[in-house]
């Protein structure tokens, strides 16, 4: 499809190669982001509405800011990054970004804008853990199958799941019990660790578990190697340094909700 650029003279040609309901876009002319966005929007509407395509996609170098901005404006959503996939010189490489528009996507108005932005803007994991005690005053920690340091019960919150619901679900999956949680004791920002990006962690008060609840534990064998009821002093050496600092702070400052960064007050 050919359309005039914003000056109305040079014609921008956008090619659509089709295969089994999927169209792949390409173009060669350098133009403004606004003109390219208008062209991509028109091509998208025509291809999807007129040619029964279910999907349009295009890959661009991460350095192509004009092209990427135009795709955002035209309602294309970022789906992923192929790391160092494009050679830029004898020893140079750069990332390639994959964008797509589906026939089912809303591409116009506030919902279309938000749908694009949620795929483009940074995302941070949310983790929900629970601090449990027993009737003797010991605290519960889990030794997982995939790392050395101990963790509180809980885990990563799923998309569209509240942190509280995520904590309840994770406790059920890891320990085999259903619990009602108390208030949030801390919100802690975690820096990158063991290959993970940064995250925001919420610590819920799980209260005191009864002997009957503890006896009913059914550990998830692929994730939980063992559980330990210990004093804080015994736990500190087994915890990630930030987690140890966080526990120390919570025990020294009971009541309320603490905001922490890597276990320390910000």
Radius of gyration based on Cα positions: 25 Å
**What does the average pLDDT come to?**
93
In the CATH scheme, what's the topology name of the largest domain?
A: Nucleoside Triphosphate Pyrophosphohydrolase
The share of residues in extended strands comes to 35-45%
SS-derived structural category: alpha+beta
Overall geometry: elongated
Listing every helix as H and every strand as E from the N terminus to the C terminus, the arrangement reads EEEHEHEEHEEEHEEHEHHEE
How many distinct helices?
A: 7
How far apart the termini lie comes to 55 Å
Q: Give the CATH H-level superfamily of the largest domain.
A: Nucleoside Triphosphate Pyrophosphohydrolase
Level-2 CATH architecture of the largest domain: Alpha-Beta Complex
Q: How is the biggest beta sheet arranged? A: 6 strands, mixed
Helix content bin = 25-40%
| Sequence stretches where pLDDT stays below 50 over 5 or more residues | none
Walk across the major sheet and give the strand order. 1-2-3-4-6-5
Number of separate structural domains: 2
CATH top level assignment of the largest domain: Alpha Beta
Total strands: the figure is: 14
GO molecular function: hydrolase activity
Organism: Auraticoccus monumenti
Cofactor: Mg(2+)
Family: Belongs to the Nudix hydrolase family.
